[in-house]
Amino acid sequence: MRSLRQRLPLSLQFAALALAYMIAAVAFTLLLSRWLRNPWLAGGIVTVVLLPLLVYHVRRAFAPMNSLFRALSGTVASYRDGDFAFGLSWHGGGDLGALVASHNELGDALREQRQALVQRELLLDTMVQNTPVAMLLVDPSRHIVLGNIAARKLLGEGKRLEGLTFDALLEHAPEALREAFERGGDGMFTVGDADNEDIYHLARRHFRLNGRRHELVLLRLLTAELRRQEVQTWKKVIRVISHELNNSLAPIASLAHSGAELLRRGQLERLPTALATIEDRARHLEGFIRDYARFAKLPSPRLESIPWPRFVAQLRSQVEFTYDGPESPDAIARIDVAQLEQALINLLKNAHESGSKAGDVALSLRRLPEYWRVDVLDRGSGMNEAVLANALLPFYSTKRHGTGLGLALAREIAEAHGGRIALLNRDGGGLCVSLVLPA
């Protein structure tokens, strides 16, 4: 009913116009018929005279609506072109008034969204251009489409890089950077000599932009950060070593003094106990120093091919665990046998020391498309979030007499093989230490 009432004035207008023309046509036809004495001729004359007038008045009545429709069509075309800086005015009511109001609301919403996008783009561009991380965006044809200020300073002597080919840019880049790209993936490299060197981290990510595959290259200067971390690490190493040395040397010195007193007094029956304790503390100190030396001097892995079943058999001769994995000799590993054996023995011993039953300590081996996944599983107490976050760091340990090197050494070995290591708590309790190694 509301819509009908809104259309009623316009309908009455056209009805009145039509009625007026009908009355005028009948009246003129009667008058001309009396004068000409020919009704058909009179009707033809009236039609010829009144029809153009009727067309004129109809077009004049529809002119505002036609103008409005043209304006609506123009605004739609402008919206399509991204221009939202205008609105429409319509003084009438009804459906056309509601249409114009909705159209103006749409324009306001699009304009506000456009302004918000522009502001975000300005903020993002400011952040990208002024970040200390050198950023390059490379298109599928290997041309640079974006290089921020840090990238210009590092690779282009401050000049714009857009439009240059990435390969041509690499030709003039430091050799260490070229080698890092040739290795593929993420990594670290050093530029400069021993007296003046900078350490960078290279990260490469691929994504699709406008349906085309692009590459984002990030070069982050780590020299200052690594120097700070190096100092903190050395301080921690010194604290740990000092603590271990004091824990061993203090009782050794005390027992040596006590042994001398026992010898002086002739109480030789107690002397073997003192000497055994001195030997025990000396061997503990020897093992502690040996572990640190092994971690500090880990050589590059010497890869060799070995069937996984044979490697697992060697491992089971040294530590107890259950095995879930391939038994076929065709399952070949490319590893440094001694290093990986050392890493897994440490992990399996940790699993036995976690409070897990011996039968619940397991080693699982799975073949992934390009990797082998080795999981060491237990049903111990697991780790809380704080321990999980720090367990792989060197010198971090929750054990009373732990060196904090077992997991760190396993991580070093896995990464030296081109793999990685991860820790996660298992459903139902226990821990999973997962090594992923290239196949």
TrEMBL record:
Reaction(s) this enzyme catalyzes, per UniProt: ATP + protein L-histidine = ADP + protein N-phospho-L-histidine
| Highest taxon above the source species | Bacteria
**Keywords recorded for this protein, A-Z:** ATP-binding, Kinase, Membrane, Nucleotide-binding, Phosphoprotein, Transferase, Transmembrane, Transmembrane helix, Two-component regulatory system
The reply on keyword Phosphoprotein is yes
Q: Where would I find the Histidine kinase domain in this sequence?
A: 240-439
Q: Which InterPro entries match?
A: BphY/WalK/GraS-like, HATPase_C_sf, HATPase_dom, His_kinase_dom, HisK_dim/P_dom, HisK_dim/P_sf, PAS-like_dom_sf, Sig_transdc_His_kin-like_C
Q: Which GO terms describe its molecular function?
A: kinase activity
- Give the enzyme class: transferase
EC numbers on record: 2.7.13.3
Check the record and name the CDD domains matching this protein.
HATPase, HisKA
Against Gene3D superfamilies, the record matches this protein to:
1.10.287.130, Histidine kinase-like ATPase, C-terminal domain, PAS domain
Q: Respond yes or no to whether keyword Disulfide bond is given for this record.
A: no
Chain ranges passing through the membrane = 12-33, 39-58
Which Pfam families does the entry mention? HATPase_c
Q: What name is this protein filed under?
A: histidine kinase
> What organism, scientifically named, is this protein from?
Agrilutibacter niabensis
